[in-house]
Amino acid sequence: QAPLVESGGGLVQPGGSLRLSCAASHRSYISYIMGWFRQTPGREREFVASIAWRGGSTDYANFAKGRFAISRDDAKNTIYLQMNSLEPEDTAVYSCAAKVRVGSVTLPTEYSYWGQGTQVTVSS
Q1: What is the pLDDT, as a whole number, of residue 1?
Q2: CA atoms within 13 A on the CB side of 5
Q3: What is the pLDDT of residue 64?
Q4: How many angstroms separate the CA atoms of 64 and 59, rounded?
């Protein structure tokens, strides 16, 4: 139904790991830049990571560096977000998004379409 469909969220204890997936419902939804964002109630959407579909270059938010890894599978029209050493501050709804043109990857308004999001809760 939705252009992008996320999965893999859930409840995990601090220090744990989680792998999120984002599958495009159709190949046409795959864009040059694919990204992950997160959002908590009452907060603005926050950039997490992005990847250039063709070249594979990546960008990460400071909080994600060294802990999160974004990747893609061209054959499956899917991007992933491997999250390690999770902390309670990482609790949020994680959404994937697609950006048509190369440019600033950290602004949500630059992305053309989105998935519904998957809930990640980090708690002891």
Answers
A1: 66
A2: 9
A3: 98
A4: 10
